Amino acid sequence: MEQQDIFELLVKVQEHTLSPEEALNKLKLSPFEDLGYAKVDHHRSLRQGTCEVIYGAGKTPEQILGIATSMDKHGETNIIITRLSEQTADFLSDKLQLFYDSTSKIGIVNRKINYTASGSIVIATGGTSDIPVAEEAALTAEALGNHVLRLYDVGVSGVQRLFHNMEFITNANVIIAVAGMEGALASIIGGLSDCPVIAVPTSVGYGANFGGLSALLAMLNSCASGVSVVNIDNGFGAGYLASMINHMGGKKS
Q: Which residues 6+ apart lie within 8 Å of 61 measured at CB?
């Protein structure tokens, strides 16, 4: 939507020929910016509360730069780029204000720490090998305005490590359980907590793990109530969903 179109909408609201609610709905459906190789949705934050997220895998460095630059010109902060290679991150760093984490392969343009939810999100991993996926979730949630507490390497092979952190489990508004192998961590946490648990199966494991399929099926068949499951290695999806839940409010801070 061009500035003139927005101005005319505002005039109609001022003249009481259009209600504020009707004007807002029109703004939510405004056109995107067509770059040829991408159509950048600048009103995503108006509709969903957060700006568009750039999936980095499969895009050229120049394409990612073009999309991020377009969003930057519209004043967007905390522009998340997932699955960003180190080589492309180096390319972008010369042209944008980029924060990059090589562990999770998350890039954030114009990073700004601004907590907009009072509750906390706990992210727990079964093992150290699950940390890359967990950090994808953690950095996503932090960029979206959440307090994040990391509990890493607290899996069922030494479950006393999880019990040692029960204070954090019971005070969380949302918990993300990240695990490979047999994926049992989500069920254990689900049985110990009174908040939503988002299970993230990872591709960590030996041959019969089938690239995370065994953990995925185990989490889908969890007997603990309140456990939902995202796709294999989808830390971003878990962090985004946890942020949405946390921003709905909660009993804890």
A: 87, 88, 91, 92
For the chain, the farthest-separated pair of C-alpha atoms sits apart, in whole angstroms, at 68
53, 84, 109: which is the final residue of a domain? Answer: 109
Instruction: Walk along the chain (253 residues) in steps of 10 and give the mean pLDDT of each run.
Output: 70 89 74 82 79 93 95 89 96 95 96 91 96 98 96 89 90 96 93 95 93 95 93 97 89 49
The structure's pTM equals: 0.85
* Sheet of strand 79-82, all strands in order from the earlier edge strand to the far edge: 54-55, 79-82, 106-109, 98-101
Tell me the pLDDT tens digit for each residue of 173-211. 999 999 999 989 999 999 999 999 999 999 999 998 899
Structural domain boundaries, residue 189: 120-246
Specify if 253 maps to a domain.
no
For 101, other C-beta atoms within 10 Å of its C-beta total 16
Task: Out of 88, 109, 130, pick the residue that ends a domain.
Answer: 109
Q: Is the same domain home to 126 and 102?
A: no
